Protein: TonB-dependent receptor
Organism: Sphingomicrobium sediminis
Amino acid sequence: MILALLAAQPAPIIVTGQPLEETEAQVVLTAEDAETLSSGRVEELLARAPNLSSFRRADARSVHPTSQGLTLRGLGGNSASRVALTIDGVPQADPFGGWINFASMDPVAIDRLAIRYGADTQPGAVAGSIAIDTISRTPRTIRVAYGGDDRWDISNSGHLEIGDGYLQSSSGFLESDGFIPVVEADRGPADRAARTEQRVSRWRFVYPVAGVEAQLGAAWFTDKRDRGFDGSDNRAEGLDVSLRLVERNGPLPFELTGWWQDRQFETRFAALDEDRATTRIVLDQYDVPATGLGVEGKVDLGAARLGAGWRKNEGTVAERFFFIDSDPTRERRAGGETRIASLFGEADAGPASLSLRVDRWDISNGFRAIEQLTDGASLEDASFADRDGTQWSGRLSIAERVDDVTFSVTASRGWRLPTLNELYRPFRVGADATAANEALEPETSIGVDLGARYESDALFASATIFWQRLDDAIANVPLDTGPGLFPGVGFVSGAGTYAQRRNLDAIESQGIELAAGWQDDDFDITLLYGFADATVSASGDAAAFDGNQPAQSPRHSGSLTGGWSGGDTRLQLTARLDGTRYDDLANLEKLDAAVSFDAYARTPLHEKLALELRAENVTDAEILTGFASDGSRERARGRTFWVGLKFTP
């Protein structure tokens, strides 16, 4: 039937490179926003949004990749993302660990970034979702910038018309000697600048085939960085291949997206002595391959859409540990597979819209094995029982416009499956050790939003009051202190803490998101602010943390951006608020609030050439991102000035 419909479509068609329908969202950032970032990093773009945070404040130039999980509305920090992020319909969470490698996303490729708050109807979206659409048919543009600490940031984008379609490309290169992450007063001889070298390339070939728009995509990245001392190096590589078919104008409009992802990751962890003078390797995670693949499609029946999907993640980890005189004595391997099969539907009826999704999940082939390298003796050889279950997600919204104000109410439910990393891989950070937990249950989330939005030609303003509850929230729960032998991790010294990944009873959050903006021919200003009052509900072994604020979850966040444009000239200043948060579930390690300022300026030098000046953290504010196991403070970013050229041949 579908083949017959395809054959009946008129040709040629006008290709756009866009999805079947644009994602509706509370916050939308555009290519113009992405172009004026002082750091050139996509994390800076996300940091402007209210109530959106990553597990660490630092960006992909210095923070460990496994610390880059996103969350919304204070629903708890975790290496795994509680926000479902997609690029052109392709999920971006790491298939093994659930973190998001932002080094794979050059802002030059972003056309539209839509942030949807509250649980959403796709796997993993317990806090919300972010949909990124990439650029289409852009003119060739080359940008080169040089910054302090011997930093180079180079990117280019452009397209080539091919018949009735086009080939769009973008690429980026970043190299930096970096800044020293540890606060100056806490540094030792071993502390140095955190080095970075990152490359990313993204291609899309869009062409009409039998009346259907075919969007063939490929993206590749490599990311090498360390955390500012020897033995903290890591390397990630990734390749994504996708195909999206979009039919807009025929009798049965539809969208079908398939993807395949390959990830390779390796990292080393080192411990420093009390004076931070020397380092010694404590873990060599030398091979972490992971693969993700899936397909999802829907048909448009007018007032309703129906769809189905299937996705699979598989991954393993191989790591050497228990080092003696620089030599590892044990090796651990762990991993497994997860699958999700889905049916979903959407419907519109007057002011109401409803989305429902049913997901059948299974976890299989889980294992963990440890052997002694000296004689090959097995210390653990565990195979974990397969599990499966069914979850549902839904989102009901009702919106009514009265004069220039739109009032809305939304109720939502979402869920997230534990990652393979959370289920099967224990880990150590300094003297602390955290055990995995193969019995973790899926997280579920429910919430209610009440909103109002005013819009006129030059002004907009909106406010959303929300309540959201995350049940069975997965957290690293401290259970004991060393010295001693503990299940799943072995020996923990007297300086360390033993923890395990556990399902907390819940995390409950309520608060508000505010947005306002004004623009005339020359000036513009945008305010984004969020307040999220989140607390932990815990019992049993975690009862000591009941009533605490979730780790790495600020109560206040947002940004204020003002700018002036005159022709091709642009001047812009952004103030960012990083609210107070805690680095631990016990709320003992407080990270103070910080306000930082970023600046951007562009002025034409020639018809095709412009000068760009950028300044990150102009006042060199101390923005703490966490505490090392020895108590030393780590900062997110320092002050950096950039000078660059933008060339449009």
The first helix runs from residue 2 to 7. Confidence is low (pLDDT under 50) at residues 1-11. Residues 2-647 form a domain with the Maltoporin; Chain A fold (CATH 2.40.170.20).
